[in-house]
Amino acid sequence: MQTAKQPIVQLEGVAKSYGGAVALAQLDLTVYAGEFFTLLGPSGSGKTTTLRLIAGFERPDTGRIMLDGEDVANRPPFERAVNTVFQDYALFPHLTLIENVAYGLRAKKMPKAQAHEEAEKALAAVQLADYGGRKPTQLSGGQRQRVALARAMVNKPRVLLLDEPLGALDLKLRHRMQIELKRLQHETGITFIYVTHDQDEALSMSDRIAVFSKGRIEQIGTAFDLYERPASVFVADFVGSSNLLGGDTLLRPEKIQLLPAGSTAPEGFEAGEGILREATYLGAVTRYQVALADGTLLHVMESNTRPVGERLRLAAGDTVLAAWPRDAARKIGN
What we know:
The chain is built from 8 helices and 18 strands. It is of the alpha+beta class. One of its GO terms (biological process) is putrescine transport.
């Protein structure tokens, strides 16, 4: 028998303004225990304000913030069973890694030997078992990020809040850390609430995602829900690349095939002839822009999986036929 999901963080009617500017407008949100839950949206959409309210760094103007069924809206951060990891890591440069990770435990009056033992376990969990005697300045950006995670997790918080923690890393290291974060979350069972503006990061890591826009949540769902069944034009446009046909019909670029001019579209396909405006080779995929006769500009993404000799040789100015399955174009909100 499947166990019912247990809410761990609930925001009920939460609103927050700064000097008359609305940051959050009557927000309702539930996060379940053990979830990797992401707050996704552009800058100024309200996602970081939401995280800071959960952490206790801000107080709501109205509404309740429930943690394990208790309203903590007016409690300071140190009275909440949450920890926060920031983009700048906030490590103490004069302390060793063991001392950095053990700092919170020592502040709670844990004996030094026990605190260092717990810190060693936490460093081992993030694959830095042999680095305890080093200083943060002796580490790479990815290693410092893992120390910050270890320091947050050693306190065994019910909820770990992560505010754009990978934003300062290069792309390759960022991808590695995404895998590492998901592994740590799965192994520890700690609820992660993660803030990012990076849609790919959100889609690849999250159990569920809340998409924010102008202080409101546009949609909450799995990566599949948001990508395949967006509830609004904003979600369709923000989550992944999109073509909006007629203003309210979504057609994803990877659903479109390009055929030589004069070809006949397969049965069950819609098609339109157009002029290729741009072709950009990106390694695993090639990205195209096609201007149809009616003025529609289609974004097309084709995988480069076929042998080189079997691929279409296309250049800007070529006439092509763009074709897609009829059921690939879906009304937004349906």
